[in-house]
Amino acid sequence: EENLFMGNAKKTGPYDSMREYITALEERGKVLRIKEIDQDRYEGTAFVYRMIEKMGADRCPALIFEKVKINGKWMDGPVIANHFCGWETAALLFGVEDVTDDSGAMYRAVMNKLTSFVDDNGKWKKIKPVEYKGEKAPCKEVVLKGDDVDIYKFPWFKNNPGDAAQYINTGAVFMEDPELGRNVGTYRVQVKGKNKVGMNTEPGQHGWHFVMRAVRRGKKSIPAAIALGVDPVVYSMASTKVADLGEDELEYAGGIKGKPVELVKCETSDIMVPAEAEMIIEGDVIAEMEEEGPYGEMYGYMGKKHENYYMIVKAITHKKNPWIFNNFTGVTYTTHMLPWQVGNYLKLKKVLPYMVDFYSPMEAIGISIMSIQKRFPGMGISAGQVALGLTTSKIMIVVDDDVDVTNISDVLHAVATRWQPYPASLIIPQTFNMGIDPSIKQRGISSKIVIDATKQLPIEGGPAEWPLVSKVQLEKMAPESFKLVDEKWDEYWKEWKK
């Protein structure tokens, strides 16, 4: 019990460990502790689905399961889930000073914060990692080797009865290449035995390139380390495509944190890993294929079984009473993708200076919304087409700058009242897309669409004159009305009985 919270976390991030971050969430009332969860009956998964249905993804707390039943055995936690629950938590972990529960405001605050780390040439600030100088790194409080290695000692979840097995799905996988240096990426890891796990590095991902390069050098395996419970900024950079192949994700994490990430050498290889991680699983990725999956993917559909690499585990090191993190993939937010969104925004702003805002809702992968200052016919369609070419979005909704792109109700209202399917749409028949989109026939190939929900000019088929939006009419003709309501807001609710 005493190890669950340390107390007195910093008011805002960046944080040096996941423990510090979770403590900060708890101090803000954003953590729900549950004594027991029977995951053999998929209680945790069903609870998360129901919680989101009743509360909405942005309002749900992080979860701490103190004891979990797995494979017929009750195991001590904590197992922590839904730890990236909405834009308020993003503001907290990236270091916004005044964190509130206003999702739209927090999204923009984090975007502004992260944009400040990017120079005029689009280059992110970097700080190189350093070696940990303490007597014993926290991630090495317990060292297991040889016959003591047993993945099943720890409470990994099988989220769905359709999953092939238990999965380690919150790990940052570290690999090194003599020419490219370090790569840190997040790949799902299937538990296959006490010292064997599957490694799902998809074709084209940086980890896949590292394995392929090792094979071309005549190697039959490549050393790797799975770092679990790394600090939230490191995890975010490992989960997003900010670093190009051959760049070090940890340098970008250091730039955001304002100080270097501290690393310690693995027990069985020269790979350097975060000293503050909860656990390190060390081993060799074998350049042979065997079945991996199926697994419930981030789109909310079951991913297919396919062949992939596997890793033989040689050592496990961890903190005493390690905190285990689980993603309910396809149900909850699994990471904060804002560094990626900042990258998209800056790329688009460079070629579309009249773009005002850009947003990709985490609950609707493949849909993006952009607002523009529309000045002449065709701007909506052309802006949307450019955006589809520079992002992995499948649906690009373009709205006027009076629409809040983070407010889905406002966006849908614009689509319902300003968009005509013809002629204000553009379908691109065949182009690249996310490989795991369940609606596509051929991996990575998809059609895309631009929905131009800006006010159409007469030459575009729109009305000669657009009527005023009712709220705008109110603001123009009774400008003091909202100020009056805001001043009396608390007074209105005094007699309300829930």
Write a structural description:
The chain is built from 13 helices and 23 strands. It is an alpha+beta fold and 498 residues long. Among the domains are: 196 residues, Electron Transport, Fmn-binding Protein, Chain A (Pnp Oxidase, Chain A, Roll); 113 residues, UbiD C-terminal domain-like (3-Layer(aba) Sandwich). The strands form five sheets. Strands 5, 6, 7, 8, 9, 10, 11, 14 and 17 form a nine-stranded antiparallel beta sheet that branches. Strands 19-20-21-23-22 form a five-stranded mixed beta sheet, sandwiched between helices. The chain has a four-stranded mixed beta sheet with strand order 1-2-3-18. β12 and β13 form a beta hairpin.
Question: Which short descriptors sum up this protein?
Answer:
498 residues; 5-stranded mixed sheet; 13 helices; 9-stranded antiparallel sheet; Pnp Oxidase, Chain A; alpha+beta; UbiD C-terminal domain-like
A few lines on this structure:
By secondary structure, the chain is α+β, with helices and mostly antiparallel strands.
